[in-house]
Amino acid sequence: MYAKASGMHIEKGWWPGDTKDEIAIGAVLVQNTNWSNAEKALGNLRRNDMLSMDALANATLVEIETHIRPSGVYKRKAGCLKELAAYFLSVGGIDGCARIQTWRIRRELLRIHGIGNETADAILLYALGKPVFVVDAYTIRIIGRVTGRASEDYAAIQKEAHAASNGDPEVYMRMHAFFVELAKAHCRKVPRCTGCPVFDICGYTEKS
Ligand code: SF4
Q1: Burial of 47 (0-12, 13-18, 19+ CB in 10 A)
Q2: Residue 146 forms part of a structural domain
Q3: Atom of ligand 1 nearest to the CA of 199
Q4: Is any atom of ligand 1 closer than 6 Å to the C-beta of 183?
Q5: What string of pLDDT tens digits covers the 208 residues of the chain?
Q6: Nearest-CA residue for atom 1 of ligand 1
Q7: What residue numbers bound the domain in which 36 lies?
Q8: Does the CB atom of residue 146 touch ligand 1 within 6 A?
C-alpha cells in the first residue's frame, strides 16, 4: 500500500530531533499530547542543558517535572525519563545499543513504567535506527479500513509489515510517517476519501 501511495510526499527526518537522545526523549514527551506541547517541554529541557540521557540521569525528579510540565502527565513522564536515562547509561548510551540485539533492547524498554509498544518501537526506530515498524492508532485505523479486517492489533500489523518489507529502517521510518500524515489529511475519524492516495485500493465501504 505504501509503495502505491505516491500522492503524499514524506520528508526525510520527519521525526523531529537534532540528536538521538532528543528523539528518544521526545518519544516519551509526545505521549498523549501533541507535538506543540512536547516541543515546549523539549525547549525547557534544552534551555536548561537537560536534553540528554546524561543530564536526565543526574537531574532530580522535581527538576525534570518542572521542565516537562507542558507535555502533560509530567510526573509519570519524569519518572519514565529517569528510568530511560538510567537504562541507556547502563549500556553505554544510545550508541552503545548498536551492539545489542533489538529484541533485548525492546524487552528492557517495555520494562520501564510508562513505555508501551508504540513508544518503545519509536525509540528503537527513530533514535536507534533499528529495523522496527511503529504501529499507532492511526495505522490500525487505516489498515482496518483498507483491508476491511476489523480486529487488527499491534503485533499482527507489525508482523505483517516486517514480513512484507526488506527490513530497511529508512523504509519503516517513511511508512510510519506516511500513515500519520495520511490519517491527518484524509483518514480521520470521519474520513475524507476524496483525493486520498490509497482510494483505489481501499475496501472501506463508507467512503466519503
Ligand atoms: S479511501 Fe477513505 S477510508 Fe480509505 S484510507 Fe483513504 S481516507 Fe481512509
Answers
A1: exposed
A2: yes
A3: 1
A4: no
A5: 433 344 566 566 788 888 999 999 999 999 999 999 999 999 999 999 999 999 999 999 999 999 999 999 999 999 999 999 999 999 999 999 989 999 999 999 999 999 999 999 999 999 999 999 999 999 999 999 999 887 678 999 999 999 998 899 999 999 999 999 999 999 999 999 999 999 999 999 777 7
A6: 199
A7: 20-127
A8: yes
**Would you say residue 92 lies in a domain?**
yes
Q: Give the count of domains, the chain.
A: 2
Q: Is 178 in the pocket of ligand 1 (CB under 6 A)?
A: no
User: 141 with 123, same domain?
Assistant: no
Does any ligand 1 atom lie closer than 6 A to the CB of residue 191? yes
Distance CA 55, CA 6 (A): 42
144 lines ligand 1 (CB under 6 A): no
Same domain, yes or no: 76 and 163: no
The answer to whether position 8 is within a domain reads no
Are residue 53 and residue 107 in the same domain, yes or no? yes
The number of the ligand 1 atom at minimal distance from the alpha carbon of 198 is 6
CA–CA separation, 157 and 163 (whole Å): 10
- We report the CATH number of the domain holding residue 81 as 1.10.340.30
Listed residue (80, 69, 103) closest to 28, CA to CA: 80
In a domain, residue 78? The reply is yes
Q: How far is CA 144 from CA 40, 98, 104, 135, 191, in A?
A: 34, 34, 30, 12, 13
The closest residue, in CA terms, to atom 2 on ligand 1 is 193
